[in-house]
Amino acid sequence: KAELPLVIATWHVKNATTKAMEVLQNGGNALDAVEQGCMVEEADIKNSSVGKGGLPDRDGNVTLDACIMDKHGNCGSVVYLQNITHAVSIARKVMEDTPHVMLAGEGAKQFAISKGFKEEDLLTDSSKKAWEDWKVKSEYKPIINIENHDTIGMLAIDKNGDIAGACTTSGLAYKMQGRVGDSPIIGSGLFIDNEVGGCVATGLGEEVVKTVGSFLVVELMRHGKSPQQACEEAINRIVSKPNSNYKDFQVGYIAVNKKGETGSYSIHQWFSMTKFQDGVNEQIQSDFYLK
Ligand code: SD4
Known about the structure:
By secondary structure, this protein is α+β, with helices and mostly antiparallel strands. Helices cover 31% and strands 24% of the residues. An 8-stranded mixed beta sheet has the order 4-3-2-6-5-1-11-12. Helix 3 (87-97) links the parallel strand 3 (75-81) and strand 4 (102-104). 55% of the residues are buried. Bound molecules: N-hydroxy-L-asparagine (SD4). N-hydroxy-L-asparagine binds next to strand 8. Residues 49, 147, 151, 169, 171-172, 181-183, 202-205 line the site of N-hydroxy-L-asparagine.
């Protein structure tokens, strides 16, 4: 039986998994752990695809998407949130303090302010410079593995065996204004079923949404697949579509089941998962489709 608690996250985010594990070791539950773990990346201005310092859309607006899900199957999400760093915390407040699941744009921001969150400029000197450099050519094409250690999706199991998950992102760099990805869409960017397991996605959100990726992975686990097999089948679902141009984009999934087994898989090489369990916090290179 797997050692609990445990935390996994997309990409190379050891500071975030350290924080989440600290919460779990101090008796916090899985929901607290994933929120606080994700907040580490949101606050880090060096990260260019989440929170403060996230790359803007093509018009220079930094717009955030995030969601969170608990062991009861409750969920909260924010889309197109501006000027508030901790999108994941607003998602949690939507879940806990409103009758709704999702708040967008100005309404999400006003709600955050009403809860005492501070408005700030999320465009930093370096993300502004990157955008200005991009504008010279204004070529829009998703860059494979741009997130590297940035955008974060996290899943945790606490010592009671309960599962929670969260994800938070500034979305694709230089997206069209108004674009929303998979990350705040329950079942696409994230899905948790406390009886079965959880999954979170990263990469080109449009492709994840089209296959309702995270829900698919959890359903496959429900029907007996291991987390690894389920992630692989969900990636296969994307690449085996007629006319899929999967060579040009990345999608990666990580998953955990109720037993604490984990898996990860992506289309292209260099996706990784960070895993903290039994005193070991490690980056694990993920297996991939395009060999
Ligand atoms: C999106 N899936 O907005 C997000 C981006 C992402 O790692 O995950 N980056 O499409």
